[in-house]
Amino acid sequence: MAAAAGDGATRRKTACVTGGSGYIASALIKMLLEKGYAVKTTVRNPDDAEKNAHLKALAALGPLEVFRADLSEEGSFDHAVAGCDYAFLVAAPVALMPENPEAYSVSKVLVEKAACAFAEENGVSLVTVCPAVTVGEAPAANDLTSVGTILSLLSGDDAYAGALEHIERATGSIPMVHIDDVCRAEIFVAEEEAASGRYIVCGLNPTVVEIARFLAAKYPQYKVNTDRYAPMSWPWFRDFPEKPRVCISSAKLVKEGFEYKYNNLDGIYGSVVEYGRALGILPY
Ligand SMILES: NC(=O)c1ccc[n+]([C@@H]2O[C@H](COP(=O)([O-])OP(=O)(O)OC[C@H]3O[C@@H](n4cnc5c(N)ncnc54)[C@H](OP(=O)(O)O)[C@@H]3O)[C@@H](O)[C@H]2O)c1
């Protein structure tokens, strides 16, 4: 980072990360603290000791302040962002399986448009980071959004597996990225003065068929149902191709100098199975 932890000559930079009880935010807070930032984070309920236990542990890595803030309360983030060099706006209601399957995607577009309009009106420099389905271990040990989905073929959770299949139907593949690469990309575009506009962060575009085969071979103890995608299966499942119809590109980010650490299924799934066991999503 530009300024290391202060010795008088250099100033420790301060970053606000909203939604510190969440999956991606908790990993981003950890990475920022490890890089020498002072971090301010927000949660809706600072008194929830169980949900915020990881924040208490992360405070051992560096200066970490926790504020109460709710997106539905105008001005409630003002204290947390005041005086910060960067604000990472990560808090958002995430519903991967709403009644209307398009609702989540539409909400993301509307939020991004509103943020861009606000930034332009108020002279704020805004860069948008759009991660693919995020995979990997994080400090937060709550019921986490994408973790249940990407582990669904191992856990046998049909509802989450349906959410995974919906992503492939809607997108043409399962665009994936490791959580470390998401956090590294967030910090990369924040620190890079020339960064502007929006950046897609996607390390890999496998199909659900490729993921099912990979997991079945690597974790035979979980009995992945690869027959679900076999040519003789129900018509509903038969239309899953071997190879992606569409690959999401993050060429803009790479062209500007970002390097992915994880770009294959082995690396991306890495320690997430162990994490899923610790969260109770998978049996030991
Ligand atoms: N995980 C992925 O694969 C993925 C992929 C692409 C984009 N994203 C985006 O990345 C962001 C974080 O996702 P995530 O997976 O880390 O989700 P998450 O674990 O559910 O975290 C979301 C956070 O937002 C907070 N939040 C929800 N409603 C709020 C409100 N009204 N006011 C203030 N805070 C609120 C939650 O706080 P509480 O603890 O108070 O509920 C939670 O800490 C979201 O914008 C999501 O759409 C995620």
Describe this structure in words.
- With 284 residues, the protein is an alpha/beta fold.
- It has a domain at 128-279: NAD(P)-binding Rossmann-like Domain (Rossmann fold).
- It has 13 helices and 8 strands.
- It has helices spanning 23-34, 53-58, 78-81, 103-122, 145-150, 152-155, 158-171, 179-191, 208-218, 235-238, 251-255, 265-269, 272-279; strands spanning 14-18, 38-43, 64-68, 86-88, 127-131, 133-135, 176-178, 197-201.
- A 4-stranded parallel beta sheet has the order 3-2-1-4. Strands 5-8 form a two-stranded parallel sheet. A two-stranded parallel sheet has the order 6-7.
- Strand 1 (14-18), helix 1 (23-34) and strand 2 form a beta-alpha-beta unit.
- Helix 1 (23-34) packs across helix 8 (179-191).
- The longest helix is centred in the middle third of the chain and has 20 residues, at 103-122.
- It binds NADP nicotinamide-adenine-dinucleotide phosphate.
- NADP nicotinamide-adenine-dinucleotide phosphate (NAP) binds next to helix 1, strand 6 and helix 5.
